[in-house]
Backbone:
């Protein structure tokens, strides 16, 4: 690796490349767990939730591989922080996901309740109509059983 | 060198198995193909980095382990993000990635500091660490081969969903 060797010291290069690979591995691993546990098919949303770590990872990797000594060291630190952020961000986004799921569940419950109310109103209207028909004697001797008739 | 020949032979056999299943049953086991490609990548990275040499300089060792780690990372991304592969093979690729990076760190650390205490440390723990790495890679490869061959055998059942169906 001649290009990297002239950009940075050997230790920095080796640890920079190593941490980049480790961070990528952790990112892939956490991303899949995130998607699976949240039972979520929206890949874009899970990528957005991990965007800080992705940015830190790529910026750190690029800085540590291309820059000169001090900036390269900074890039290495940034990459290691990206590795930590993958783990931290996971819990944060998990918490916000739980909150969003709670609200969504409430909304769905409300919708179910409204649909149920509407159904009750319709059923009582149909019942009233049937009773009126029987009272008026317009059913011709047979009681209509369903609304479609 | 012998280990590489064995790995290459297994890779070739499993690739041929996949091709045969594609020809005979018009489908093949994804796991078997991934394991065969991974074994080929192992031999290839050895060839590209150090040309099967036994004695390596620190830069060559680091290059070899990072190429192996990158290959494992690619396989890891494939198996994780695709959803077609069993959990055990995903865990194995993750383990191999982490193992290779830590081996690169270890070899770089000990070989660049050879004169200032590295040699003594290597004499004390080097053989243990290197052979534990080698044994774990061999063990993981063996498990992978078993898994790949079993899932390939699962393809060719024409009677029920069990293994070793009648041909």
Residues:
């Amino acid at each position: 690796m001649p290009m990297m060797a002239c950009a940075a010291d050997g230790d920095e290069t080796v640890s920079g490349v190593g941490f980049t690979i480790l961070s990528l591995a952790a990112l892939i691993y956490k991303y899949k767990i995130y998607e699976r546990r949240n039972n979520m098919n929206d890949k874009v949303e899970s990528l957005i939730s991990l965007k800080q770590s992705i940015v830190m990872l790529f910026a750190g990797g690029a800085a540590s591989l291309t820059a000169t000594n001090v900036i390269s060291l900074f890039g290495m630190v940034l990459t290691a922080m990206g590795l930590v952020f993958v783990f931290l961000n996971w819990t944060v986004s998990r918490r916000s996901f739980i909150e969003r799921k709670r609200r969504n569940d409430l909304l769905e419950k409300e919708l179910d309740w409204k649909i149920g109310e509407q159904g009750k109103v319709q059923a009582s209207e149909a019942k009233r109509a049937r009773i009126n028909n029987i009272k008026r004697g317009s059913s011709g001797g047979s009681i209509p059983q369903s609304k479609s008739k | 060198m012998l280990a590489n020949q064995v790995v290459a032979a297994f890779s070739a056999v499993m690739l041929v198995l996949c091709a045969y299943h594609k020809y005979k049953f018009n489908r093949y086991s994804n796991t078997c193909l991934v394991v065969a490609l991974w074994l080929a990548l192992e031999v290839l990275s050895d060839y590209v980095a150090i040309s099967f040499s036994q004695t390596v300089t620190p830069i060559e060792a680091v290059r070899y382990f990072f190429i192996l780690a990158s290959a494992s990372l690619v396989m890891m991304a494939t198996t994780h993000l695709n959803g077609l592969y069993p959990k055990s093979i995903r865990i194995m690729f993750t383990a191999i990635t982490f193992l290779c990076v830590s081996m690169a760190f270890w070899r770089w650390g000990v070989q660049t500091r050879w004169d200032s205490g590295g040699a003594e440390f290597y004499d004390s723990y080097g053989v243990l660490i290197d052979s534990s790495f080698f044994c774990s890679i061999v063990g993981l490869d063996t498990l992978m081969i078993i898994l790949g061959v079993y899932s390939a055998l699962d393809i060719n059942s024409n009677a029920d969903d069990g293994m070793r169906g009648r041909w």
